[in-house]
Write a structure and sequence with these properties.
Layout: E1 20-29, E2 33-41, E3 46-54, H1 77-85, H2 88-111, E4 119-123, E5 126-130, E6 133-134, E7 137-138, H3 149-168, E8 171-172, E9 181-184, E10 187-190, E11 197-198, H4 205-222, H5 229-236, H6 244-249
Antiparallel strand pairs: 1-2, 2-3, 3-5, 4-5, 6-7, 8-11, 9-10
């Protein structure tokens, strides 16, 4: 087991009832979703929440999500057929699975001690989580800042341990890079789990893990950190035994 670290959020960070949720504007618009800022105002204090709203498939730019349908669960025959044929019902089924998949993954990783935004609740077209930032100013992505070499070395070690924690929870991020890491209060916060896969059942889990490590490492190499990717893979928990089922099925 990895040593637990102090949480970035206090256990009572979220305002309890009664409260009002007040929209504060759009934080980010992407090809798959929009992230909105909400102020949850209670009698004595306010909590800031990020609400991720997934776009309808007709307006989304990301079109490869049908590949994940079988990984998220077989569903019924009608649903599986609709997904294969990309009917309107099939698109709605994929949308629902996509949202549930990312919410479930975020919750799973938070409970496993991975540094992610604390989950709050699901909503009709997405989910809510803690806003990572100060006041109404969102934390920057790693791609937006340059760390000094000493700090970059420390953060690279920490990112490797975050990947290891994910793997211990049987999750591979699937799209990890400095773009999907926030920098807040001297810590790396992992986000965006829409392409995460199960490390036990997904046939490409090890391939995606290697890609995650390589892409994450590329940022730290630019910051002057000398990185041996093979050694980093050993740190995060990669081994033939770990992915034996994928090797046997290939």
């Amino acid at each position: 087991m990895l040593e637990a670290r102090p949480p970035l959020f206090a256990s009572d960070w979220l305002v309890g009832a009664p409260y009002d949720d007040v929209p504060m504007g759009v934080l980010k618009t992407g090809k798959e979703s929009e992230v909105h800022l909400l102020a949850r105002i209670g009698p004595e204090r306010t909590s800031f929440i990020a609400e991720k709203r997934f776009k309808e498939r007709r307006s989304r730019g990301f079109r490869n999500d049908y590949r994940y349908a079988g990984v998220w669960g077989a569903g019924g025959r009608r649903e599986a057929r609709a997904i294969r044929n990309r009917t309107r019902f099939g698109q709605q089924a994929i949308q629902a699975r996509w949202i549930d998949h990312e919410w479930t993954t975020l919750t799973r990783l938070y409970e496993a001690g991975v540094t992610v935004p604390p989950p709050v609740e699901q909503v009709a077209d997405g989910y809510r989580m803690a806003f990572v930032g100060d006041g109404d100013r969102a934390a920057p992505r790693l791609t937006e800042i340059d760390l000094d070499r000493e700090t970059a070395r420390r953060v690279w070690r920490e990112v490797q341990l975050e990947i290891r924690r994910m793997l211990e929870a049987d999750v591979v991020h699937g799209d990890l890079s400095a773009f999907n890491v926030l920098w807040w209060r001297g810590r790396a916060v992992l986000i965006d789990f829409s392409q995460a896969v199960d490390a036990v059942t997904h046939p490409a889990a090890r391939e995606l893990l290697v890609r995650d490590v390589e892409r994450a490492a590329s940022y730290f190499v630019r910051m002057g950190v000398a990185i041996d990717v093979r050694a980093a893979l050993a740190v995060v928990g990669d081994s033939p035994a770990r992915f034996a089922s994928q090797l046997l099925s290939s």
